[in-house]
Amino acid sequence: MVFPSPSTLFQVATAGEALIDLIEDADGRLRPCAGGAVYNLTRALGLQGVDTIYLNPLAGDRFGRLLAEGIAQAGVALAQPQPVHEPTSLAVVGLDEHGKASYSFYREGVADRQVSAPGLVAACEVLPGLRLAVTGCLALVAEDSGKYLPWLQAQRAAGRLVVVDANLRPAIVADMSAYRASVMAALQQAHLIKVSDDDLSTLGINGADALAQASTLLARTSAQWLALTLGAGGAVLLARDGHAWHSAESAPVKVVDTVGAGDCFLAGLLVALLQLPGLQQSTHADELRLDAGDAQHLLAHAVASASLCVMQTGCAPPSRDAVIQRTRAHPPVFRSL
Q: Is the entire prediction scored with pTM above 0.90?
């Protein structure tokens, strides 16, 4: 692994999958698009002006060059700029009549999985300005737990705010029990968890509705906050002290497809989080506290980021200016629960 200059003050380090989404068009043809939940999140952060470093390697093949180009255009740094020999992983994406995506993955012996726990930890040790460590989705499979879990533990011990996006993909695993256990182990290291209503069902969390399920999940972990996405129903931010806030669009959103919506939501949430004086002033993530005003700021920016994404084909993360303009033109509806 090639480490960045210690003088570079990266705020966020991301680790997880980078792949090519082969999206099925109306005529049945497969259109290649740079993707992967962590890759999408990484680009979305960079395009909103956050100093971000991506820790996984990329391939030297055609698709790897496409991924590297997207990283560069977003202003994101690569911890390992030299490509590796292994090929780029692939996902075949199908869209239903509502634009909702389903995935089939090809992930054996691929470039982005060529990481180790010591390498990930060492890459972050030389980043003095690092505040957030973020992972999720395909990085949470049981086979890769030994790579990412020690890294998450080290980042939490170092006082960085750990963010884990459950973003479950049951189609990729044969052993759901092992998968759920691996996801839960990662969530135990998080200060902030992001889940969808679908994730809660896949995890087998009991509850009368998604909000009750989310509360149960939060109570089962040591996380301080949980962000729950509800599709067109908006999103909820739950705090460990029992407070919860809901935000949803006040204006109709024309959905083209939902590819990358959750990734852009989380990016928007983290962009807003990094702006909070409390995070900037705290020396340890456990010291950070959020109030209703903070929650409104975070959810408004996150919901608008996701809405701008779903108005485009594929994952098209918006700029920070575009998000701010939308929140001003169409302020989301916000309420305490």
A: yes
